[in-house]
Amino acid sequence: MIAVETATLADAEALSAFAEASFVDTFGHIYDPADLSAFLAEWNPPDRIAAQIADPDWTIALVRDAEGTILGFVKLGPIDFALPPGQPHDGATELHQLYVGEAAKGTGVAAALILWGIAWARERASILYLSVFSENHRAQAFYRRYGFVDVGRNAFRVGNHIDEDRIWRLDL
Fold this sequence. Notes:
- β2 (59-64) and β3 (70-77) form a beta hairpin.
- The chain is an alpha+beta fold and 172 residues long.
- A seven-stranded mixed β-sheet has the order 1-2-3-4-5-7-6, sandwiched between helices.
- The protein contains five helices and seven strands, in the order βαααβββαβαββ.
């Protein structure tokens, strides 16, 4: 059984570094270095993660290996993108990030984190949204397995570069 634990303020620095490394490993090749650097500077700095950990409207949960190294995490909180027309906002929350380190992919860490995140969302909301890069087919297949459906487009800005993300919805 994979143990999922709620992050504490002491985890903010490590979570920030893990999030940045995961993003760069997966998507860094897409962006101009200046755009990537500008994005990363504001995206998940330790103080922002600490504030989210301390805020009851947010949660971050993680999985560690036996040595305490983070293998993956999930972050949920208030919706921060515009929903497509006709998509309800009331009673909704967002899965902001679910990242798993390369060595832990295929080990069940992602499944443990998504199930934990869905359970957390069910206690607070009736709809769970997320946004995923339109070219990230592996992530889209993963979310589809858990019942998420594609409901529209989201422009995701990294510096001056704008990607097309897809918004996915799960009715809880």
